[in-house]
Amino acid sequence: MAATPAYSLVSPAVPEWLNKGDNAWQMTAATLVGIQSMPGLVILYASIVKKKWAVNSAFMALYAFAAVLICWVLVGFRMAFGDELLPFWGKGAPALGQKYLVHQAKVPETLIKPWYPMASLVYFQFTFAAITTILLAGSVLGRMNIKAWMVFVPLWLVFCYTVGAFSLWGGGFLYQWGAIDYSGGYVIHLSSGISGSTAAYWVGPRLKSDRERFPPNNVLLMLAGAGLLWMGWSGFNGGAPYAANVDASIAVINTNISAATSLLVWTSLDVVFFGKPSVIGAVQGMMTGLACITPGAGLVQSWAAIVYGILAGSIPWASMMVLHKKSSLLQKVDDTLGVFHTHAVAGLLGGLLTGLLAEPDLCALILKNPNTRGAFYGSKGWVQFLKQLAAATFVIGWNIVSTTIICLGIKFFIPLRMPDEQLLIGDDAVHGEEAYALWGDGEKYDPTKHGWHASLHSDIAPSPNINNGARGVTINL
């Protein structure tokens, strides 16, 4: 009888340095963040816009998710997390080779070292790059030329997103200086909000009729998309420590506390000032609460998460409902979904609050400088607040300038805005497809426009006895 062969306790696929729990959590977190975009924002965008823009809005998100992934592995990841080229930019190179992806992940010097392969980190960080680009799209829905968008996505990723990511996360000058952005309040939310409003300015406004009346075509489906965003945020902030550790758990509970508080505050303000709660307002409050806590999710105590939520539900509400209506500058920019308010204002607010409320013991668990603290915890904390302010200034300035250059460069070859003929019709003119096999918005039934094929016309006779806003039809079988 042959002897049973002896096997190594460590498989080649499970090297000694790999922590299965950390790797499993990192891949789970990456999947949760990916679901926020696909299908989360695809569903949210398709349902929150006017019916005639449902397909176009969903496609903009879908295209960006795919395009960002390919650009990310070809050059973007190592521009954001590779060797330094400039104090704010890494050396671009592919992140595709097996020898690169199977080795232990490397990140800038912190107290936490990832115990999983580089492949896990590449995909996790891709999902952040993708959602940032898709959030930006919310500012230009309903009128940006789809061909211009297809060019804009890779250019913005390479020349804008990677700069913020390297500067604050990848070992760049803001990271070395000690500015804090736990999970993307600046890299993602401030960046997408500022770039989105800048792009909206250069693209131009929607048609006057669309800008004045732009109702959601499916509020319940909008809530489904919003729910995917909220639940996915546990991976968004919970994956930031690069380990399944205590800090990840704190980040997850703080994230949900802030979101719930902000939603309730925003809804309460709607009731007080407008007499009724708004479902769209509740979603906006949820979003601002999530964006606001992101830069400090694992660095503040849970009572502070309630403070984040209160301010996230009130300050962006005031900027959207009061300041926007009184500011001639803001009125000039047609920001379709108010990304400036829900992400730029909320992300900036969260970054500054982190400079005030970052708790020393929690900072010592993860940050490079173990003496980091917010101003609330001692006079030296004011230095941290000033660093947060300076970092925000850099992110805002870079996004305005780079997005402007990208838009003007594209405009030289491709119109940024759709022609008015397409804007009047919407999806059918742009894609030759419509979201729903029905008609509405008050127009009369037209068999050539509303989905009836020419081959069926001989079997369809108009029914003069039905008139509920569109003529009925009788199908003779």
Keywords:
477 residues, Ammonium transporter fold, globular, single chain, two-stranded antiparallel sheet, mainly alpha, 4% strand, disordered C terminus
Mean pLDDT: 89
Order of helices and strands: HHEEHHHHHHHHHHHHHHHHEE
The poorly predicted ranges are 4-9, 452-477
Multimerization status: single chain
Rg, rounded, reads: 24 Å
Write out the CATH superfamily name of the largest domain: Ammonium transporter AmtB like domains
Q: Which CATH architecture of the largest domain?
A: Orthogonal Bundle
How much beta, percentage-wise?
under 5%
Q: Tell me the name of the CATH class of the largest domain.
A: Mainly Alpha
The percent of residues in helical segments reads 55-70%
Q: How many distinct helices?
A: 18
Task: Explain what this protein looks like in three dimensions.
- With 477 residues, this protein is mainly α.
- The chain folds into two domains: 384 residues, Ammonium transporter AmtB like domains (Ammonium transporter fold, Orthogonal Bundle), CATH 1.10.3430.10; 34 residues, no CATH class.
- It contains 18 helices and four strands.
- The strands form two sheets. The chain has a two-stranded antiparallel sheet. A two-stranded antiparallel sheet has the order 3-4.
- A hairpin with a 3-residue loop joins strand 3 and strand 4.
- Helix 12 packs antiparallel against helix 14.
- It starts with 19 loop residues before the first helix and ends with a strand.
